[in-house]
Every structure is written in structure tokens, then in C-alpha cells.
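S1.2 Input.
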Amino acid sequence: MWIADNWKDYQVLDCSGGEKLERWGDYTLVRPDPQVIWNTKKNNPGWKKMNGHYHRSTKGGGEWEFFDLPEQWSINYKELTFNLKPFSFKHTGLFPEQATNWDWFSELIKNAGRPIKVLNLFAYTGGATLAAAKAGAQVTHVDASKGMVGWAKENAASSGLSEAPIRWLVDDCVKFVEREIRRGNHYDGIIMDPPSYGRGPKGEIWKIEDSIYPFVELCSNLLSDNPLFFLINSYTTGLAPAVLTYMIGSAIVPKFGGKVQSDEIGLPVKDSGLVLPCGASGRWQPL
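S1.3 Output.
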């Protein structure tokens, strides 16, 4: 498992009964987690002194309950700053487990010894975008949500990256990739964090198990002649790491060679010493 264990401002303190207790800077939150199917004694005092609690509804969705929590605050990861705010369906605007991937591709970018162009698809609030830009890459950030792209720009400003070579685009990722291919543009690194389910601007259905492999094949046409990396993140139950390996291996390796590695990503749990699984990632890089 690839573990995001370099955080100072974030910690999973404990997990029990379908929930996780987390420290986000100066504040503690309790949020549901479908992986936490065990029940252990909740000894950590944070369970009784949380600043926010997301209650899942039996009818789907849920709602936040707040106890002395600001509308927005920030935390740092190394030299990056992220603005957080609790919003729909338990999220805060950041997936801390992704830091293990940020560290991986940042080293590749820093050691490349040449200018690197990176494309970040389904780019959300820009964690990967900022990490790649901080490492020295020129980044194109694409997300269909105007609000998420705006949030990502705020994170860039907070991280001192307002003047970094980042192109911010509100666009449908599939349509954008198709246009980039027609324009003859290429990238040295591609990152994607596709949703399990979504709808395109004209009602097109995105269902990850049906759509992801054709999309990876499509994106392979955007890689440069000397690509540096390709990264897919998956939070979809059923897409095991081996599936990511086979998929990237089938779409990328015949064209570029290289090696594929896939694994679960996770976060260390302070009180138990366990590692909480948080989805899976597939990584390609040249040999």
C-alpha cells in the first residue's frame, strides 16, 4: 500500500463504527467512511469534542452538524496551502491520501532535467495541480465545475502559485481531450481522478466501468514522444489495483514501454497503528 504519511497538519486519529475521527489543522471532524466496518472502543477524547460531524442519512446523503467550526480555514502540506470548507456529501475540498501520489510525480518532475507539461483531468480543487506546479511543471487544470476551478485558484494563490504557469479550464474532460488531440497538443504527464458516475454537458452518461478504458486509450494519444508519467486514481469499489494495472498496461505500455504499478492508497491511523484504505492508484513511468 502507498501511504500518505508525510502530513503534519492532518491526521486520522481513530476509526470505529463506520466513522473516522480526523484532525484538520486546529479542528477535528467526524465523517462516515464505508471502509470502517469494525467497532472498537472510542477512547480518543476527540470523539466527544469534535468541531464538525457529518451524519449520513439512511435515505442517502446526509448533513453536517457544527460545533465551533469556521466557515473556512486552511492547512499546509509541505510548501502548499489548501483552503478547506465543509460542503456537500461529507467533503472538505481535499483528499489527504493523494499526497502519496503528489510526492511520487513531484520527484519525477524535479529530476526530469527538462521542461515538463502536465495535464490534470477531473482536477477538483487542485491538489495535484499545485504539487506539479510547485515541482516546476507547466500544468493544464481541467474540471467541469466552475466552483471547483475557482476553489483551486484560491488554493494556488494561498500557496504562492498565482503566477505559476497553470492554465485553468472549466470544461468537460472528454471533450477537451478530443479537442487537444485535434489541435496536436501533447503532455509529458497525465493525471486523472475520474468520478464513478457523471453526466456530460449534453446529458452524456459517464459510468466509470464503461467509460474509463476508452478514455485512457484516448488520453494515450496526448502523451509526448518522451512521456514522464501517467496516473489514474480510483475511488470506485470493484476497480481493484490489478484492474488499473491491466488497463494502463493495455493502453500505454504497447506504445511507450515502461512499467505499471498499482496499489491501494491509505492514511495512517494514529491511535490503532492501522492504515485506512482510501481507494487505489495506477502509475505508469518509463524504465
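S1.4 Remarks. The first helix runs from residue 99 to 110.
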